[in-house]
TrEMBL record:
Family from the record: Belongs to the OsmC/Ohr family.
Official protein name in the record: Organic hydroperoxide resistance protein
Pfam families named among the record's database cross-references: OsmC
Record InterPro entries: KH_dom-like_a/b, OHR, OsmC/Ohr_fam, OsmC/Ohrsf
Domain of life the protein comes from: Bacteria
One of the GO biological process terms: response to oxidative stress
SUPFAM superfamilies linked to this entry: OsmC-like
């Protein structure tokens, strides 16, 4: 495996902390979401993960579209990342990716969505680790 890029981000303070990338592109405070006792108006790990996964997933969908001769430039991936409590001290993520490919019927869109999920690095990283639903909409 050839390493093409490595992101380096330093986190401090946990959910109510700060993250900063070594290149300075990311430099922000984090807060737990209001639903978890935090406050509105700040990013949290689940928002960042959902955004990163959605962007990466659309890259994989672009590869599938190219293979299938389907233009997916206007496609969207709405990624829902949930933070779930399993027990008093154990937590687990779950996710749903709602994939919309304009001009493509739902059956074909679902096949393309599933193929992109198989190729997406973020999807591969979560495979077998968390519950994930990929749904063409």
């Amino acid at each position: 495996m050839e390493k093409l890029y490595t992101a380096v981000v330093t986190a401090k303070g946990g959910r109510d902390g700060h993250i900063k990338s070594d290149d300075g592109v990311i430099d922000m405070d984090l807060k737990a979401p209001k639903a978890m006792g935090g406050e509105d108006g700040f990013p949290n790990p689940e928002l960042l993960f959902a955004g990163a996964w959605g962007s990466c997933y659309l890259g994989a969908l672009g590869s599938v579209g190219k293979r299938d001769g389907v233009d997916v430039k206007e496609a969207t991936a709405e990624v829902h990342v949930s933070f779930n409590q399993e027990s008093e001290t154990s937590y687990q993520l779950s996710a749903q990716l709602d994939v919309h490919i304009p001009g493509v019927d739902l059956e074909k869109a679902q096949k393309m969505a599933d193929a992109a999920h198989k190729g997406c690095p973020y999807s591969k990283a979560t495979k077998g680790n968390i519950q994930v639903v990929v749904k063409a909409v």
